[in-house]
Amino acid sequence: MINPFYGRDIISIRDFSKLDLEYLFRMSDKIQKLSHDELKGLAPGKLLGTLFFEPSTRTRLSFEAAMLSIGGGTVSIVEARTTSIEKGENLNDTVKTVESYVDIMVLRHHMEGAARFAAQITQKPVINGGSGIEEHPTQAMLDIYTLLKLRGRITNLKIAVIGDLKYGRTVYSLLYGLANFNPQIFLVSPPDLMVRDEALIDLEGKAKLSQHENIEEIIHDVDAIYVTRIQKERLPDPLEYEKVKGSYVIDNKLLSKGREDLMVLHPLPRATEIKSEVDKTPNAKYFIQAQYGKIVRAALISLMLNEQPPN
Ligand code: NCD
What we know:
Blueprint: H1 18-31, H2 36-40, E1 47-52, H3 58-69, E2 73-77, H4 91-98, E3 104-109, H5 114-121, E4 126-131, H6 137-151, E5 158-162, H7 169-178, E6 184-188, H8 197-203, E7 208-212, E8 224-227, H9 238-244, H10 252-255, E9 263-265, H11 286-305
Parallel strand pairs: 1-2, 1-3, 3-4, 5-6, 5-8, 6-7, 8-9
């Protein structure tokens, strides 16, 4: 199969097929078997620019750690206030400047469409590291890889997606990505934070979906729960947050109603939606999920930069 990621932008997970995602997962498996020197040979002398206009821990650091692990280097904007953006420079000029320094860039921005815009104005490949409430495709890639590694398969899984389904961008990429693998998805949220209609329309006929308010209705029946943070900073009114905060709290009592091998996933950061007591249970998979982030991102960058990946 021809490397479907070579030279491409990663803006929406919808731009990639089931076969493309499986190709990435095979590469993710492969790079874990490479020697230190083989790994360093994947991107020698290449530079990754991380342009982050919103806070991040895992996404930025895992991208940077991934690039270093495959022999490349990184330059970063982590705080727009320390750059010429503070002087009024626009995104166009920032991207046009950074493109002359780097081989590939990751952009996180509060505006929907920002990553697509950046990709259109630069020849260098752009990865969407989160675009407003729209999408976060590489998060979904690592989420689905985690399911594959920990459950042994992706097809025909039953997954509950819980929390802020309206503003959580990881939710949209996950739903669109999972739709390739015939899932049954239970969407659990307060009525004010239900998934946006655009996704329901898009997913029609591609995934079995049902909407719920109560986790207890469905917890006994699922392979995994994917818990999300209420996106406080994206709610239009602080009073809205007061209404929905603490809507869902995953604790050991709730988990006892699920299957013994129920997986608890979360893109992190968490606020109060998963109690720390859950961390000690074998069900807690969110830190392993974050570890897979570095591996999947290293595989992805390697594929974007090398037409012929290693055998
Ligand atoms: C998420 C994000 O930024 O969309 N975090 C992440 O990248 N792992 C989720 C969130 O902020 O709640």
